[in-house]
């Protein structure tokens, strides 16, 4: 691991975030494996996992490329990468190399990569364009950049709808908008791809709905219970609205009638021609 740390990830890097990312990954493993297959990632390839976090996505890529392949796992969090390294050792995975630092500062040798993967990274970048350019340079002709990013985060709702739930989602969207964050960054990818010389091979929204006890429910549950108190602390969500949301959530869990419609993610495969 190189000596560099800028640990500004908005959701934090503590144990509760590692647990949340693990649940989130369990909920999305099937979709990750599907996009890796669709993108043509296979045995022996060299792939970079951008914004890898504690490595749950890197471990899946490592299984696909096998011991003759190589996974470069890049993140700004030293804590996440330390978890990744310990977990790799525990699982007996030897093909992952960690790289500490911002993805924007990557110097990739031209044509050195078969593939790149990122999930829920570009939403957190101030500007995703330089990264897409770096990746395009690093890919060999025919190489792919597979991404799983939000295309409509604000679609999240209770089904049937509950006003207190809608207010919480509106507060999240307003906060991200005010902080200049492009949460629905997948919508920008065709433009970013074109300016970086990549073609859009595949774009497909993934919409999911789950009842209490489902992975979808757990995913949303853990996110909102960590994130909404942060919004209250930041003065971006009124305490009374938060209390109303908690009451509505607890009632949904007791009644067991509602479903949760999750944020809509988009599978995107870009190709270097
Ligand atoms: C929502 S997490 C997703 C982690 C992982 N991709 C997954 O799907 O489980 C976002 C990750 O991006 C990392 N990150 C945020 N900004 C970054 C940057 N500029 N360069 C590298 N990593 C960054 C964070 O540290 C965090 O691990």
Distance between the termini: 32 Å
CATH topology-level fold name: Rossmann fold
Instruction: Label the overall shape.
Output: globular
Q: In percent, how much strand structure appears in the residues?
A: 15-25%
Gyration radius, in Å: 19 Å
Please give the domain count: 1
Q: Taking strands numbered 1, 2, ... along the chain, how are they ordered across the largest sheet? A: 3-2-1-4-5-10-7
- The overall pLDDT average reads 95
Helicity range of the residues?
A: 40-55%
Q: Please name the CATH architecture.
A: 3-Layer(aba) Sandwich
Structural class: alpha/beta
How many helices? Answer: 8
Order of helices and strands: HEHEHEEHEEHHEEHHEE
Explain this structure.
This protein is of the alpha/beta class. It has helices spanning 15-39, 56-65, 78-91, 129-138, 163-178, 189-195, 215-233, 239-255; strands at 46-50, 70-75, 96-100, 113-119, 139-152, 157-159, 198-206, 209-211, 259-261, 264-272. It has one domain: 3-Layer(aba) Sandwich (Rossmann fold), CATH 3.40.50.150. The protein contains 8 helices and 10 strands. It is globular, with a radius of gyration of 19 Å. It binds S-adenosylmethionine. Residues 9, 21, 25, 51-53, 56-57, 74-77, 80, 102-104, 119-121, 124-125 line the site of S-adenosylmethionine (SAM). The site of S-adenosylmethionine (SAM) has 21 residues, from helix 1, helix 2 and strand 2.
């Amino acid at each position: 691991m190189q000596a560099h740390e800028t640990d500004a990830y908005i959701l934090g890097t503590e144990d509760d975030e590692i647990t949340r990312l693990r649940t989130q990954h369990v909920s999305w493993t099937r979709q990750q494996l599907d996009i890796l297959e669709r993108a043509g990632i296979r045995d022996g390839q060299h792939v970079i996992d951008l914004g890898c976090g504690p490595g749950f996505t890197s471990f899946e890529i490592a299984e696909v490329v096998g011991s003759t392949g190589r996974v470069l796992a890049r993140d700004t969090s030293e804590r996440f990468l330390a978890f990744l390294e310990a977990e790799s050792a525990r699982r007996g995975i030897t093909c992952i190399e960690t790289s500490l630092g911002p993805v924007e500062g990557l110097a990739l040798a031209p044509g050195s990569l078969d593939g790149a993967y990122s999930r829920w990274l570009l939403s957190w970048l101030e500007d995703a364009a330089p990264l897409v350019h770096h990746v395009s340079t690093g890919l060999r002709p025919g190489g792919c950049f597979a991404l799983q990013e939000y295309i409509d985060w604000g679609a999240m709702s209770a089904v049937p709808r509950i006003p207190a739930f809608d207010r919480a989602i509106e507060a999240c969207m307003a906060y991200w908008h005010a902080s200049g964050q492009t949460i629905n960054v997948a919508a920008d990818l065709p433009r970013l791809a074109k300016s970086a010389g990549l073609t859009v091979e595949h774009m497909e929204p993934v919409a999911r709905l789950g009842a209490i006890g489902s992975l979808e429910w757990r995913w949303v549950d853990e996110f909102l219970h960590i994130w909404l108190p942060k919004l209250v602390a930041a003065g971006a969500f009124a305490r009374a609205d938060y209390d109303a949301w908690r009451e509505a959530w607890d009632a949904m869990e007791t009644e067991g009638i509602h479903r949760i419609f999750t944020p809509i993610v988009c599978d995107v495969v870009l190709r270097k021609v």
